[in-house]
Amino acid sequence: MVNNKHFKKEKNTIIIYALLSCFLTVGSIGLFALSANRPNIVQGDITSGVDCDYYFNQANNYTSLHEIVAQLNEGTSSSTYKTWGTVTRYYLDSSNNKNFYVQSTDRFGNVAGMMVYQSAAAVVEGSVLTIEGTPSLYNNLPEFVNPTISLDYNANSSPVVSHETPESFWMNGTTASSNQFLTAESMGVRQIHLSDVEIIYTSYGNAVAEFVGGTTVPLYYSSLSNTSSIDQVVQSLNAQTVDITGYLDCYNNYGDARMRCLIRSASDFESQGLSYSVSLNSGTYTNIGTYQTGNYGSKTVSGYSFEHYRGVSPDYGSSDFIELLPYVSAFGDGSYPGALYNTAAIKDIQSLEITYRTSSISGSQPVVAYGPDESRLNTYAMPLTSSYSTINIPLENTNYFKIETSQSTLFIKDITIDYSNTGSSVPFAYLGSGTGDFRINPVRYSGSLFDGATVNVPTSIVKSGNNYTVLTSKTYTYYTFSYIQSHPNYADEASQTSPADVASYFTAFGTYPANYVFKSNYASASSLFGNEARCVSYYERTDGYATAVPYKGDGSGIPQYYECDIDVDGTYTSNNRGVGRVVCWVFGFDPSKGATNYDSSMVCVYTDDHYATFQEYLNDGSFGQRFNAEMDRTNYVWGPATTLSIV
User: Fold this and answer.
1) DSSP state of 503
2) What DSSP designation does 224 have?
3) Over the stretch 457-516, which tens digit does the pLDDT of each residue have?
C-alpha cells in the first residue's frame, strides 16, 4: 500500500544514476515527439489482432524484410520495396536524427530486421508499420533512409520476442564466409538476447561481452544522443555478469568483418539485483516553453521519453524544473489537467521520490497515477503543501507513471525514478475514440450560396438502433465578410465563436464564418466584429497532427484543412491566438482508412491544448472522446463512431 511517509526501499545492490546531459528538446509549437508526427492508421480497428494474411497476400505487393535482406546480401535488390514490421527500438543519434529498427516474420517463419535511418516520422516501439522506400547496405547493415511510413497498428498483438544467441552463435564472428556470420547476416538487424555474459569496458562507446567459454561479442553504442549515459552504466558494470538485449549487426567494411551487438539504451542491460535511477531536475529537463498559459512538449532523459502537458518554465533563479498548471474550462469538458508522464516503459519502477510544493493548500490534491501499462489504474494523492516537501512512493508492478494536477499549480523541483529494469512490458492497446459512440453525417447546404442563405443543423438527436431523429436544431445563416462590411449591423448575427458553432457552420456551408479572416486582414475584421474577430489558417500538410486522423486527400493524397482559432480563456488577439482550434478537413475522413460510413462531407475536430489532443465533432451539437494527436496524453487514438441514418 502506498503511503506518504519518507520511505526508501532498501537495496543491497549497485545503484546506477544514469543522468543524461544530452537530451531532446521540443518546443510547444509544431512539436514532433516520440509519440508525435505519427503515420496514419490504415489497417482496421486498433484493438484487433494484426492481420498477417494481409501482408502475406501477394496482391497487396508486400515484400518481407527477410527477402529484402537476402536480396541486398546477394546484390539483387530492386529499387523500391513495400514492406511491414514491428518497431523494436526507436532512438536518436548524436545529431538528433530519428532512427528505429523494425522486424517481421514472413509466411515461412523467417525473421529479419532492418534499420530506418533519418526517419521523417517519430514512431512508438511495438507499433506495426508499412514502409516504402529504397533499401541499401551501410557497412553491411540493411537500412532504409527516410522512407514513406504508414502506421497500421499501434501495438502488435504478438509482441516481438528477442532471439536468444548462445555462445556458439558468435563463434567465427570475424570471418565473413563462416556459417555463423552468413546465418547472422540473413537476419539483418534482428533483436537479440545474450545471457550471462561478462561486461568488459574498452573505450567510450565501446565494450565487449564475454561468454563463459571465452567467446567475445563487441558492444557498440557510439554516436547516440545518449552515449554518455550508456557509457556511465557500462563502466559501472565492468567485470559484472549481466543479460543484454540488443540488435544484431554483421559489420563488414572491405574485409573488416565482425558480428556485434548494438546497444541503444542503458536499459538494454539487465541483471538480478541491479538497480537504476533516472533523475528529472533542472539539469536534465530544461526549456519547457515560453507560454505562461502552458506548454506542451517532450524530452528524452537517460534514454527514456517523457511528455509535459500544460507545463511552464520556472521563474529565473528558481530551483524548480517545471510548473504544472491546473486545467482550464471554457468549452465542453475543458482541457485536461497539467501533467508529466513517461511514454516509454521504464521496467519495474520500484519507487518515485518527488520534491514539490503546491500553490494552494485547499482543493483537490495532485495525483500520481501508475501501473504496468499506460492505463495507470492505481493512484496516489500527493498532499497539498505550501513549502517544499519530499515524498517517496514505493511501487510494485509499475512501468508507467503520470503526475497531474487539476486545481493547484504544482511546482516540481526533482523527481527520482528508481527501477530494476526486470520483467516485461506489454505494448498498450489504445482504445478507439469512437468506441461505443455514435455520430451523424452533417447537414449541408445545397445549391448556390448567397448572403442570407440558411441551414437548420441538428443540436441534439434521439437514437433508435442505427437510426436517429432530430430533437432540436439551430439555424445558421451564411454571410460573407464583404457583405458584413456593407451591412455592419449584421456583424453580431454573422459571428460564430464556440467550437460547436464554428464546426456546424463550416460543415454546413463548406467555409468559415464571416468573423474569421486570415491574419493579414485581422485589423479590418476587428473593426467590424470587435473582440469576436478571429484568425483562420489554411494548410496542405501530411505531417504533425495530420497523422493522428484518417484524412482523405486530393488526387495526390494531400489533405486540405483549415484551422479556426477558438478563444478558450478570454485573452485572444491576433498576436496571442492561444491554444484553441477547430480544424476542418475539406475532403473529410477516408472510409478506406477506417472511417466507415463517413460520407464526403467535411469533418471537424477540436483542440483546446494546441494539438496535443483532438475531439471529433459528431454533427449533433456534441464532440466525441478526446484522443491523442501530437501527444500521448490520453488512452485513446482516433477510431470511428457508429454513423447513424436519419429516419
Assistant:
1) H
2) B
3) 999 999 999 999 999 999 999 999 999 999 999 999 999 999 999 999 999 999 999 999
Domains of the chain, CATH where assigned: 15-25+278-429 (2.60.120), 52-153 (2.40.50.140), 163-273 (2.40.50.110), 438-646 (no CATH)
Whether residue 342 is predicted with pLDDT greater than 90 in this model: the reply is yes
Q: Minimal CA–CA distance to 498: which of 518, 517, 515, 473?
A: 515
- Phi/psi zone of residue 447: left (φ > 0), alpha (ψ -120 to 50 degrees), beta? left
**End-to-end alpha-carbon separation of the chain, Å?**
54
Q: Give the amino acid at 593.
A: K
More confident residue, 304 or 138: 138
Task: Give CA–CA dist 515/568, Å, rounded.
Answer: 17
Distance CA 265, CA 638 (A): 31
Which pLDDT tens digit goes with each residue over 110-169?
Answer: 999 999 999 887 788 888 999 999 999 999 999 999 999 998 888 887 788 999 999 999
Residue count of the chain, please give it. 647
- Give the residue among 586, 603, 594, 592 at the shortest CA–CA distance from 539: 586
412-432 pLDDT, tens digit per residue, is: 999 999 998 888 777 777 889
Give the global pTM.
Answer: 0.71
Q: What is the CA radius of gyration of the chain?
A: 27
> From residue 622, how far is each of 192, 479, 626 by CA, in Å?
49, 24, 12
Q: Which of 328, 323, 327, 387 is nearest to 360 (CA)?
A: 387
E strand or H helix at 521:
none
Distance CA 405, CA 312 (A): 13
Per-residue burial over 550-586, b if 16 or more Cβ lie within 10 Å, else e, is: bbbbeeeeebbbbbbbbbbeeebebeebbbbbbbbbb
C-alpha span between 130 and 141 (Å, rounded): 20
